[in-house]
């Protein structure tokens, strides 16, 4: 793994702050109905992504996740303007406006979605790894899922197959405490999700997901194992989401105190604290980053606003490779 | 009469039935402590307790199957899918077990179970969250499929569905839960398999069901101003289908438009079209028109979604076309 340096922390600070502000902007424009549908924000979970990206080889490794998926493609290299435009339903969006908030994809940057059916991406992640192994590539796929998704049969079938075939995949639960209004404790007879790996003899462990360097270290071990052909790892990365499940969640299932307490461990504040402790940046330098981030978010918003809506034909042209579609006219 | 929301109608139906019959329970994601993702089970945990109003983890295959098994052994479960899009994770248990167990066991077991939840699109939710599987389920012998369009129908039909001794797929809509409507005071049931004429007219028959029927109502208003009288039939139950009501109406109007929010290939409208041409061919004065979604997964962008969904303008156009007006 690349060494974790002053530069790493400064990058983490800038990236995480940008993801946070980018999504705060989404929440804001959602209220103005610029963005519609479901909107699930990553607020609070940023260290999981920051740490993981540090451990990945971004020239070849892959990522797939569920619908809480706006910062991940940006982290993988996708132009954030195009992510914002997708949420606006614009033709310049990552899926030309077809996918929306829950379905961000970038083949170019090896971000494989963006999946709306809970647990649906778990076998896909193993499948991406299957193809890499098949082709003899030494790339690794990071397959993310929520705590709620671990109760789907898809996880259990996939774990078995991935171990049986020693697929180069890292299964990562982002345990943010809840699946909508259901706490982890209410979904199973156990709360240590990482132990699910034991039954398959899959290397597995819990990870503190509020500290990017901790995530990076654990992820590096898992990725190294997968790259060497030793098969999958299962990490339960413990984190928290500060906002509701989606924009329409009254959050009666948890207290304000609980959220406030978890906010004390805010990963962005944590990274900033480390930077100041080590005198890696002055307040002025941090202010410059803050301003840059603000500027970048404004640019995204402006780009999304100014972009045109897609042409109607994209809805048909993207269904099949075959070109004479639709086979029959739709409207009279 | 009293005025209540669709979600309250669903809740009243389940609550009243659970009071009469101990063997009924409600199971699904967020149905208990959260009072339902769309608040259709509000207050039910308080009244019936955790034994009978049961939160599940996200395990559709598991809990659908457990419910079917319990129905084979004396329970009468109501299973809520947060939306029917997610029923696909558990569809094996519905098609291979719930629908088959009676016939396959030579009639020894029955499967008195209701699978309910919202169907079809609900705004810009895109491809995986906007699907209508009425025709998929209706294609399967052993299942009944009910799709109400207003609170009064929802309540009366859901009560019948719960009392039915066969598996019933009961489909609602996120976009209807807030709809208000008049509902009779006191207990009432609406039989499954009976359509209702929601608007009488002599010029053209429009058959529809579920949320999208509102587009037909709006179109009928517009057309009435031009002197065209539409008869609107709300199927209410898709399977068993009330062919008689459709045929009687078509024999009167001689023209048929079918409005269904679903992909066009082999859907409910296709079935109606076949039945009508085979049983009332000589009564038809124009080819039947069916209005459906575009033949694509649902797009997210508002401009594309508008193109994708059938709407009242499409209905107006179709009605004029079967009347050979412009
Ligand atoms: C198969 C399926 N069932 C139900 C849903 C509805 N749903 C969407 S997100 C969600 C909760 C998932 O929680 P978790 O896996 O912990 O992820 P988080 O939202 O916390 O990131 C549910 C029940 C769905 N999208 N897919
Ligand atoms: Mg969660």
From TrEMBL, chain A:
Keywords on record: Oxidoreductase, Pyruvate, Thiamine pyrophosphate
GO MF annotations in UniProt: pyruvate dehydrogenase (acetyl-transferring) activity
Known function: The pyruvate dehydrogenase complex catalyzes the overall conversion of pyruvate to acetyl-CoA and CO(2).
The keyword Oxidoreductase appears for this protein: yes
InterPro entries named in the record: DH_E1 (IPR001017), PDH_E1_Alpha_Subunit (IPR050642), Pyrv_DH_E1_asu_subgrp-y (IPR017597)
Keyword Transmembrane helix: no
Domain of life: Bacteria
Database matches in CDD domains: TPP_E1_PDC_ADC_BCADC
Name this protein carries in UniProt: Pyruvate dehydrogenase E1 component subunit alpha
Reactions catalysed according to its record: N(6)-[(R)-lipoyl]-L-lysyl-[protein] + pyruvate + H(+) = N(6)-[(R)-S(8)-acetyldihydrolipoyl]-L-lysyl-[protein] + CO2
Matches recorded under NCBIfam families: PDH_E1_alph_y
Cofactor needs: thiamine diphosphate
Gene Ontology terms describing biological process: pyruvate decarboxylation to acetyl-CoA
Domain Dehydrogenase E1 component, chain residue ranges per copy: 15-311
Species this chain originates from: Halomarinibacterium sedimenti
Subunit field text: Heterodimer of an alpha and a beta chain.
Pfam family for this entry, one: E1_dh
Enzyme class at the top of the EC tree: oxidoreductase
TrEMBL record, chain B:
Keywords of the record: Oxidoreductase, Pyruvate, Thiamine pyrophosphate
Obligatory cofactor(s): thiamine diphosphate
EC number(s) recorded for this UniProt protein: 1.2.4.1
Annotated signal sequence range: none
Superkingdom to which the source organism belongs: Bacteria
Any one GO molecular-function label of the UniProt entry: pyruvate dehydrogenase (acetyl-transferring) activity
Domain Transketolase-like pyrimidine-binding: 4-179
Key word Iron-sulfur present: no
Matches recorded under InterPro entries: Transketolase-like_Pyr-bd, Transketolase_C
Pfam families in the record: Transket_pyr, Transketolase_C
Protein name: Pyruvate dehydrogenase complex E1 component subunit beta
Species this chain originates from: Halomarinibacterium sedimenti
